[in-house]
Structures are given as structure tokens and as C-alpha cells.
Amino acid sequence: MTNEKEIKLQPFILPPDGSLVRAYGILGDRKKGIIGCCEMSRTMLWSQVNIGRFPKPLKIGRIAAWRAEDIREYLKDPENYQAR
What we know:
Blueprint: E1 10-11, E2 20-22, H1 23-27, E3 28-29, E4 34-35, H2 42-50, E5 58-60, E6 63-67, H3 68-76
């Protein structure tokens, strides 16, 4: 028996088009119990954004958020995705 609190992970479900998604929704967050929709590190995410292989986020102050429809488009074919 362990003293650690067991966290039940829940898959992240993309919200409807027109909504914004934060990085933890894309990558997951064990502390919040969320499984992300993309299996990559935060560093890899930003690397892919910088070379145009992942959608560019909107900046709201210091916060980065992605359009749900851009993430859906990426998930259709991640290997061949090119940012607009």
C-alpha cells in the first residue's frame, strides 16, 4: 500500500470549433489529471510551431492558446501538416 494519491487520468476532448485550447489540453497535465491529444513534450511542441509543422497559437497577453479547429486539422495528418 502506498501513501501517494492516485490520480485518475481523463482524456482531453477538443471543444467545438471557435473555442481555444491551452497547451495542457494538447500535451496533457498529470497534476490536473488530463491526457493530452498529442504525444510530445512542451519543447517539441514549440519546436514544431517554429518550423511550421504545428499550428501557431494566438497570444492573449502572456498566454498561448490554439484554435480547436487548427488542432483538429493537425490531428487528421500530423506527419504531413504544414501551418498556414
